[in-house]
Amino acid sequence: xxxxxxxxxxxESEPPLLAIMGxxxxxxxxxxxxxxxxxxxxEMQNQSNIAGGEDGGTGLNVWDGSLLLARYLEKKPxxxxxxxxxxxxxxxxxxxxxxxxxxxxxxxxxxLLYALPLMRENVKRNEMLWRGNNKPCQQIECKECxxxxxxxxxxxxxxxxxxxxxxxxxxxxxxxxxxLIEPLxxxxxxxxxxxxxxxxxTYQQRGKEAHDEFWNGIHGLFDVVVVDTExxxxxxxxxxxxxxECIKKK
Length: 250
Prior knowledge:
- This protein is an alpha/beta fold.
- The chain has helices at about 65-75, 95-100, 115-125, 125-130, 155, 180-190, 210-220, 230-235; strands at about 5-10, 15-20, 30-35, 35-40, 85-90, 105-110, 140-145, 170, 200-205, 220-225, 240-250.
- It has a seven-stranded mixed sheet with strand order 7-6-5-8-9-11-10.
- β5 (about 85-90), α2 (about 95-100) and β6 form a beta-alpha-beta unit.
- α1 packs parallel to α2.
- The longest helix is centred in the C-terminal third of the chain and has 14 residues, at about 210-220.
């Protein structure tokens, strides 16, 4: 039995609504143990109309896929340590902030405009955990990125960055509706400059149509390793959750 159950409604005049009925991975707004620290991530109640689009306000919640990716990186920090990290669909900022704590040199978190204030609050709230004289992380930035109109990479990285492109791209639980899959795939294609960029994806399978479309699309663009988290890092997950490590096809 899976402790996380998601309900999707599709009224004609409003964007689809996802309601969180429970979580598989434990989460507490007052603080979660992470990498020998206490990480505090605030969220807001799901508000279906706040974004005014298909996103449905889901960027204001912490989802199981984000918790899974954060825990996976905690077990395997070498994936992001001393690297420039770009996250798509960062939401409340859990994964990006976790990456900074684990030693990423630079983190750029992105989402739609409505999600950025809460994301920035969470970055500030945890600043003492990721920033410091003896810590590799130099900066965590929060920037707008709409997959239907993705900004050029130099706009995301900015003048302060020494990197020309991200070394790692993270995507946590962003595959839940078919109409967002192709824009996400095209954004990934645009931002993976060559096979030196690793893409790490977690997602929850919620329906056969969306799953098949994403599965075929991601395998068409990338060489994909489906990670057995229990065998590789001792991290248990339900069968409906997936972890991919991807490199762009040559």
